[in-house]
Amino acid sequence: MSVLRDILKEEYDRLSALREKYVDELKCLPKGSISAKKRNNKNYYYLAYRVGNKVKFKYVGKENSDSLKALKVELSKRKELEIKLIQINKQINELSKSINEK
Question: Which residue of 3, 59, 80, 102 is 20 to 30 Å from 44, comparing CA positions?
């Protein structure tokens, strides 16, 4: 039984390290969503995010701008990492129950 416990412990450690890596990556990526505002028949794009209870807007650029494309990539990467982090947390919880780790 100790071999199985050792394998589960190694997997627990691997997932914990991976979780820390994902959390560090998430800190570098922007939070929020893209908001479009139309003025004079032109679309202007903003990053909408919360600070406390208030919603703040940061100007990103016009349609088809490089900064808007880069922001879309970063936001999609953040969403993927958040999904992976949820899955890892579930796996860690299951492993901790199996090996009695808290």
Answer: 80
Can you tell me the distance from the alpha carbon of 45 to that of 97, in angstroms, rounded to the nearest whole number? 46
What does the alpha-carbon distance between residue 80 and residue 66 come to, in Å, rounded to a whole number?
A: 21
Cα-based angle 38, 36, 86 (whole degrees, multiple of 5): 170
DSSP for the chain, written as a single string:
-HHHHHHHHHHHHHHHHHHHHHHHHHHHSPPSEEEEEEETTEEEEEEEEEETTEEEEEEEEETT-HHHHHHHHHHHHHHHHHHHHHHHHHHHHHHHHHHT--
In Å, how far from its chain's centre is CA 82?
4
The per-residue pLDDT for range 25-83, each reduced to its tens digit, is 999 999 999 999 999 989 999 999 999 999 999 999 998 899 999 999 999 999 999 99
pLDDT band at 24 (very low <50, low <70, confident <90, very high): very high
